[in-house]
Amino acid sequence: MSLPPHNVPSPPVVPQDVRRGPRVFKADDPALVIDEVGPEPAPAGDATPGLDETAMQPQPSRGMRAAAGDILERGFRWGALLASALTGAATLAAGLWFARFVSVGLEREDWLGLVIRGLLVVAGVAAFVILVHEGVGWFRLSRLGRLRRTVDQAIATNDKLAERKVADRIVALYRGRADLAWSLARVKSHRADVHDPKGLLILLERDLIVGLDGQARRQITASAKRVATVTALSPLASLALAYVVFENLRLLRRLAATYGGRPGVAGSMRLARSVIGHLIAAGGLALTDDLLGQFLGQDVLRRLSKRLGEGAFNGALTARIGVATIAEVRPLPFIEAEPPRVRDILGQVIRRSSEKGTKHV
């Protein structure tokens, strides 16, 4: 049996799943086309016929082979393993030593046991007082935020009754402060004469809050001057950076205490996060409006002295943080009073830092 002639049409194409019978052909037939050897067909029971089993197995990627090659080339980091093991052992030993020390001290009945018990009692009382102080500071800071939101809502709705209620809360907030006794008495004497919307809030701002604004501005100016001076005179950049962070955190707490907040460590961290968010939200406008002249003056200072330029920049940063903190902790928005501007504070800082720098350069 031989293949049909070339002029005879080829048989129709049948599906691959239909099995064909055996055929006879000649090896030297020019019409014969030999296909390349492909993967062996899978068994009939396999759900994926024609797929090589080795292709289904996960092969190591090029990145994994490169990483393994790098490890083999440079060797295992035994030094890092040694440091980690020693650090873990030292931490565990310190914890066990302290636990054993306390347990043995509590079991003793002599003077050493009494001393250890006394120290533990003192530590417990101190921890309790710190927790109470942190809670009170958090509550005071939250109260300022609630007052500010209530004032904004009363102004937006033009509600005179809500304005009087929030005014009473603000007066109660500052009642008992000796530095505000005269201001509180003045507010009390003129309160009955106010009948217009926002009139009572304007009275509180003019006779009470503006005085606090003056204290806050002096605190910001003093902190910015200290930061600029330390930066200009510090021999180490790391020391100057540490002082900048410390002074800004202290400024946050002082400003919050000025307006009635008095936050602890947790409250200060919360306030710092709010201030950073305020700076990010209003950074573009503040940079265009208040700090354009600062950067121009700073360039002149940098040409004269690098230290003076760094001091001016750090002082401007402290001033911006202080102004943003006032916007966060002030119980009233700026209704008629002018908000403090970084440009005005920075002028005094640059003059002071320039005088300090020229004396020590």
Attribute tags:
361 residues, mainly alpha, 71% helix, extended
Explain this structure.
The chain has a domain at 140-360. It is 71% helix and 0% strand. The chain has 13 helices and no strands. The chain has helices at 53-56, 62-74, 78-107, 111-157, 160-174, 181-190, 199-233, 237-258, 265-281, 283-290, 292-304, 306-329, 342-360. The radius of gyration is 39 Å and the shape is extended.
Give the termini separation: 111 Å
Give, in order, the helices and strands. HHHHHHHHHHHHH
Helical segment tally?
A: 13
Tell me the Rg in angstroms: 39 Å
Q: Which percent range describes the beta-strand content?
A: under 5%
Q: What class do helices, strands and sheet pairing give? A: mainly alpha
The helix content, as a percent range, equals over 70%
Overall 3D geometry? extended
Question: Which regions are unreliable across 5 or more consecutive residues at pLDDT < 50?
Answer: 44-55
Largest sheet: none
What would the average pLDDT be, to the nearest integer?
75
Question: Strands, helices and their partners?
Answer:
Layout: H1 53-56, H2 62-74, H3 78-107, H4 111-157, H5 160-174, H6 181-190, H7 199-233, H8 237-258, H9 265-281, H10 283-290, H11 292-304, H12 306-329, H13 342-360
